[in-house]
Fold each of these.
Amino acid sequence: MRIIVHKDKCQGHARCWALAPDVFKLDDEGYILPGDVEVAERDELLASRGARSCPERALEIDCTADALLARLLFNQACGGFK
Amino acid sequence: MALKPVPDHVPPEMVRDFSLFTSPGMQRMPNGDPHAAVARVHGGPPIFYSPDNTRDSRGTWVITRAKDQRRVLQDSESFSSHRSIFASALGENWPMIPLELDPPAHGVFRSLLNPLFSPKRVMALEPAIRQRAMALIDRICASRTSCDVMSDFAFPFAVNIFLRFLGLSDERLDTYVGWGKDLLHGDSVKRTAAALAIVAFIDELAAMRRKEPTDDVMTFVVETEVDGRRLTDEEVRGIGVLVFVAGLDTVATAIGFDLAHLARNPNDQALLRGEPDRIVPAVEELLRAYSTVQIIRVARKNIDFEGAPIRKGDYISCATMIANRDPAEFECPNTIDLAREDNRHTAFAYGPHRCLGSHLARREIVIGLEEWLSRIPDFRIKEGTAPITFGGHVFGIENLILDWS
């Protein structure tokens, strides 16, 4: 999964970091580092929660990847994910 | 009530008899719920004109939807934050910095101060914050089964932490809190007197730190440089006043509203007491439901905004307590759900002026509730007493007497 970072919209709320500190890295001022974030599979749930927590809408879950995540969660819910 | 006159460019059908100061539920009253009262505006249009909506009875446009507030607060080219809200009490017009500067000047000062208030910096303060909360609460429950939360805990907790953060002793804590109350909630005479006292205090502090530097925030401000130069006296004062005033009221008030909620909602209280891990997300929900600040912007140009003919110089109100009850943004906004997900509230504003102290405020509130719940047994509003709430441009609560006998 990939998260598109709109760095210009980040205002340092740091909600993403609070929810997923291993995924979202902040600079010394407390704002997100530039560059999109590639998320390891094991961090996808936390990362999407972190992205959805941004009050400024600075984090965008890559839509194609989002569809993949939905399928993964569906499979998990159906017990197909071991 | 007769409406005040409105400017000619405001269409009469866009005027509403609403005010954060005078509408029903905004007055100082026992057992009030000013947040529920303002939430009623969501039954009306997304933007309207309120003829009397500031302390000095100015008219403002009122933006009710979170989405539209985001657009206003993120667009500092169209909407300025400079309105000398503090200096006007002295008949002056210098900006509090960085709050009342617009980009790009804003960014220079904001970058200077951001590292002092970053989430990582706040983490380092955690033990001191917790120790202060524990000491105060232990002292309360050693001898009593009842207390006034605001004067016995919320203010001496939040303001002490804040003063230490600034490098100030808390010997004069009550004086400072008094200045803050007069400034935010007092009449114009009290407000001017408080503003004078605060300016004199900040100027004196800056002079002391210039002469004898220590390792506190004010020393940083007088010694730091922007664009290769030291800050001017007016800039030092603008920063000092803002940073000082910002910590005197809001965190304590948030703790007051939060503990009042938990006192009245025993299920929520039991949930957090039993599962302290839930306190962190619960505090976000309480920040949403009981946010306290009205943000105002000034139009820098004529702009047609969602059907409203905003003209250069018009005031635009983005009240956090209104956007945070927007049904288009929050499902069942008037239900306080301590496990609410995707809680992108605006208690600390949107845009470049996002509350600089938000990370410190969050930790103080979380730690305050954690320590309160772990030390004080089931508590309720003391029988025969009633907390007093009030609206205005900063909402507040007083006389919160809790009882756990």
Note: Chain B touches chain A through 23 residues (CB under 8 Å).
Amino acid sequence: MNSEQINRSRTVDWTLRAYIVLAYVFVFAPIAASFVFSLNSDRFPSIPLGSVSLDWYRAVAADPLVWQGLGNTLMIGLIVGVVSTFLGFGAAYTDYRYHFFGKQAYLALALLPPTIPVIIMGLAMLAFLSRVDLSGRAISVIISHVVICAPFAMAIIRLRLSQMDPALEPAAWNLGASEWATMWHVIVPFTKPAIFGALFITMAVSFDEFAIAWFVSGLNETLPVKVLGFLQGQVSPRINAIGTFVFVISMTLVIVAQVLLSGRAAPKSDEKE
Amino acid sequence: MQRDTLVSIEGVIKRFGSFTAVRKMDFEIRKGEFLAIMGSSGCGKTTTLRMLAGLEAPTEGVIRLSGKPINHLPTWQRDTPMVWQSLALFPFLNVRENVEFALKMRGVGKAERRRRAEQWLDRMQILEFSERNIAQLSGGQRQRVALARSLVVEPEILLLDEPLSALDAALKVRMQSVLKNLQRETGITFVYVTHSQSEAFSMADRVVIMSRGVIEQIGTPQEIYGAPRTRFVADFLGSSNIFTGKVLAASDSGVQLETADGPIVLKGARLAQPPRQGATATLTVLDTKTHLSMTPPPDATNVLPVRVIGEEFVGATATIYLETPRGQEIRVQKGHEDLVGLPLDIGETLYAHWAPTDSHLVAEA
């Protein structure tokens, strides 16, 4: 018997396992229910279930409005991801490299947007964007989403930079790399997992975001806004089908980000002596 | 400036805000020498090295490399590579790419880059690891990668910032001989910053001892060991017994000092500036040249009654710690055979003595 086994209580072990299972059930039960009912042929979500069918998926796929919403969402998500990651990288590097008066305030302001209630944010965005004649377009959603996504990108990239040996950058200068060359050949490669992680996370955030998009999107509705439209009209199992679809895309983005962020960070830990 | 001078540091001062890291420093680094800069933490040794590397600019004064002032040349425009304490290898590049980095930044072509990198990897005996990740290497192998990465541009000078501090004792000794041989074979000037006396003294041709931003002494290890210039150096090296007292008599060949424990004499010296009578002066004697006996030796000068307060064995030698009646601590270092028959239990009384010609006058008390 190794020391791990002799120092463990079976009761504690099983309690912890049960706790984790319950926590996951609590989180995933509604999503699972949505998935199950999306495959149910009945018009209303009730038990016993009818037969298994893909009718609702077909109905969704045949709806041009859904495709339009999806196209908007994907296009906006991609642009938001790229722009937010670029801005987040710049902000994180500024924080890493420079010390200046008011840096704490700079950081606090940079990380503020996600903590503002989305309703307030959405209203403020609408008020501001319509004032400058930019509301009701795809660019309005992009601008608004960048505001809430860039802080996430900054936080992720900043974490990676904090793991970097502070001697790495001056070592590159010392070996003949100018500041730009060092940025390209040292800082970017080192933070690459975090850059891609940030890209996928910000895409996922934009993809799921509803409230602000609802305020500013006008006719260029994103998918979550379309879903609300469906719900207001009638309760249709098509919602379940869309929900499952959206869930799969978001989870894929988040999981890819997680793999990038943890997988590459692993050799870093044993590199320290 | 001498002909064989590679770097000259002229009146260099470095301030960080109100803190002065380096005060008015003047010295020269000769072509092809192994120079160690030694001192405790915060003495300004690393700041000095960083100014040579171009990572800091001097507040005042001039640093010249081969006669040309380089004060405000950015580090990437100098050929002054540095080996970092943390080694600072690039974790996202493999061993060969790490070594190629400086060549790539200088626009050397791919094939040439590879050839020169592999040549240095071979020289450092790590060619077989060239495609490995840094994380897969041992401490000693990383050390060699860091050296190859800095030397691949074949600089005139290599700066080393305590590169061995993370290694275990046995590996440290092995890397010391690797470094020393490398320096001798390449003829590249090495400037090696360390807080370790054994590293500095075993490798360097000349040692600079710094304290609080000031150079206390520059000289060969033998010179510094045998004749510490200041009391600080004698204390720092810890290999001498130190006596301070009032000068009773002084000539250009000797000094007689009145200390709390009695007179201490220096004879047979050649003093450029003998101390004035009545002034305070400091004499030192190496612990290896201090002898012990059970009775006071006949007609000997420099005899002190002492009490044993401890002993320490390191390999073939023993260090005996003693105390005079006035509480001055004295150390004696001897081979075991020289101590046979002496009562060395704590509290025993013995006599410490040494020849007046083995005394040394410290210039700055």
Note: Chain B has a mean pLDDT of 89.
Amino acid sequence: MKPGSRTLEVTKQIDVEAPIDHVWAAITQPSELARWFPEAIESGPLAPGTRGWLTWKAYGRFAFAVESAEAPRHLVWRWSHEAGREIDAGPTTRVEWTLETRPDGGTRVTVRETGFLTEKHLGENTEGWDHELGELVALLGG
Amino acid sequence: MVNLFGMTTPRATAPVDLDRIFSAIADPTRRAILTRLASGSATVTELARPFPMSLPAVSKHLRVLERAGLMRRQVEGRVHHCQVVPEALDAAERWLVERHEFWNARLASLRDHVEGSDAAAGAAPDPDDSSWR
């Protein structure tokens, strides 16, 4: 991605009172993930190349694939946002987790989801995504 | 159709293809065309005028917008009148808002999980905590 370019993205941050290794386990171990993320998970421990499915009763079963995992700080996966669709069968979004130890011993968790586009578009300079979308919606009287 | 974030696509209207909508508005030329159309319908020739590109190139962009459901055209003889379909963008915006809500909720669950299980994993169980089963 070009420096300075912005893509359509959602970034969220939260501070938790737990050591970084504990949070890392919570986002990479299937048994832990099932306690707070999906209702069911079909996957081995999240490592580069891991593929699996996340299931929510209300929404369905979603394919994901891990791109990189550098314990205990950085995890990236891609997932499909259409229930039942194989990971390679359509567009995916990229979910990037960053963990940082805080001075108080807790952990800062940042999750950033980008994409919403096909690969072809990721190379384009799609500046000001949310901004542009918001402006267009306002302009069109949405 | 229900996606991960619980957004339902009303059956009564044309299906909303968010992939296509987001792809369509990823392009600055197409955003400029939509912006122009926001001030009223226009013919293909009028839409093409401000852009340093051929009419066929502009037509290609218009087809992408049409396929995404963002634009429709009415044909009168040889003249094509283009109009924006704002509802398609509403769907995209609603989806983004839901995505924000989704991550807010999931991160709160993560915090509850790691902070709760951290306490539970302590070597000495808290004798005052009788709520734990």
Note: The first strand of chain B starts at residue 42 and ends at 43.
Amino acid sequence: MNMLSFKPLTIIALITSLLISCTREINVDYGVNDVAIYETKAQKHKAKNEAEYIAILYTNLTQEAISPNLLYQTQNVMYSIGDQNVAKEMLLSNYFNSQNLKIPSDVEMRLNVEQFVIATYKRFLLRLPSEAEKQWFIRYIENNSNVTVEMVYTAFAASDEYGFY
Amino acid sequence: MRSNMKRKEFIKKSAITLGGALVGPYILPSGRLFARTGAEKAAHVVMVMFAGGVRQQESVLGRYLEDSQGVSGAAGNIMPNLFTGNAPTKKVVYGLDIPGEPKGTDPIPRIVSSPLASQGLVFNEVTAQSAGHYVGLNTLITGSRGIAQGLKVRPKSPTVFEYLRKHRGFAATDCWFLGNGIGNSTPLLNSSDNLDYGLDYGANMFIPPVTFGSFGRTVLSNAKPYSNLELEPMYNMKSFLDQSFALEKSLQTTIKNTDEERTRVKAFIRNTYTKQSLGQIAYPPSGSGGDAVNVAYAGEILKEFKPRMLALNLSQVDGCHSNFTGYLRSLHRADHIVGWLWEFIQSIPEMKDNTIIIVAPECGRNLNPNPILDENDWLAFDHSDRNAMRVWSVMVGKNVPQLSVGDEDNPVGRLTDIVPTIADIFGVYEEVMGSGYIDPLAMSQFLRV
């Protein structure tokens, strides 16, 4: 037998299986637009622990992961200060005194304040600002020429909301 | 006649208004109207939580090696700044090391002019409410027996700071807690999580060996000094964000200073790093280790903030679990740094003659030793039996009577008395005792005598 009688059968079986298994893809369009989903402040009720706060903040500002050694040291220092706002503000001003930050310049902020405010809310609070929040910040930045990116970032990173997720 | 009546009525109303203004209630930060119930005995209180489990036998009773190691004729007082009595003459190992001589043969000279016990009120035999450190610290700081110990757990009952801030209206920077380590939830002793009091009334806190140690310098010493012009927008924007988030009290995780206080605390931290690098921090001359660091930075806090209430803990004598000789040395040095602290307070004009210092161990140590021998073949002691619930207290300063109360056979007072005593000093005794959170058997030491 049978090599000769086996070959046609195999070919027929292959062709049949190919025909059966291939189906045309149907694209279904429900008419719904893609939407980016952000957190809402009302859902934030879990406090970040020191390690979470420090690691997230460091990565946020430098776009790099913090080393385990520096994380451990920073965690201990944060825990050793009673007023966490003092600790956070000191830590932030220490970061802002370092060279490896990746943050927008003051000129970039002032070129499009609205965009900066929205981006800052998303960057720190992982949500969009409400219209009132957006307008308050736009007005505050526009009316106070001495406000810098560093000041805005410090306020956000030291805010109560940034301590929660 | 009619005009005469009006005049009388006018005088009467004026008198009532004037009287009301003079003796009227104080408006406290809590928003409550509250009249102070007593006169203040002193403007400042410093409480030393001493020092990690101290046996009565080697401290207030002055028995040195007689009771612990059975060495006859080796009694004597190794705490000359706190207690009266001659130093031991036999087997002296707790002092300074002199080259060429056996270790510790030179006792550290007394710093204070006369022992604090002879200047003030001593309770020689006080009942502690626990044989453990953390519950003991809780007891000293809350006036009630601690009910929980776990990882990062705040006291359940209000701390003395919260009582004073709520009922006496002290600011956050008026109240300080300095811990000597971050273990055992010690950093959380600056406030309870009690919903009637809690973090709104908590004290400022540092753990100096960490905050001002190598970790602190690495992490914080490069902080920028912002001007008020720079700080104002930051605080305004932060305040807006915080109002928008409206954090519930039950979710609060930190005590809060006002913006001005926060600026001051940050400036203090920066200045302290600078002073450190210039070698300008004053240390107890013969102190060493975490306890001496804690007391040195307590001195810096006292100088800068002149707090109304400062509490600090010492713990190095806890080495007694495995090294009795080390325990004796630590006990002698803990006494030395308390003497130094009291003298330091006298060097601050605003606090001199207007401060009361209270010193009390958080727990004692066992009657019988464990089997661990040290370099001198002396046995070590843990803290878990009835003897570990025997402690003492010493109080010295303005308006404190000179008295010695109780003895070994006649215990008087409880460790939970300390908070009521502090409340009494600041004139809010009734409010604090009426809070419902104080040990019902506790009372002010001023009343006990």
Note: Chain A touches chain B through 43 residues (CB under 8 Å).
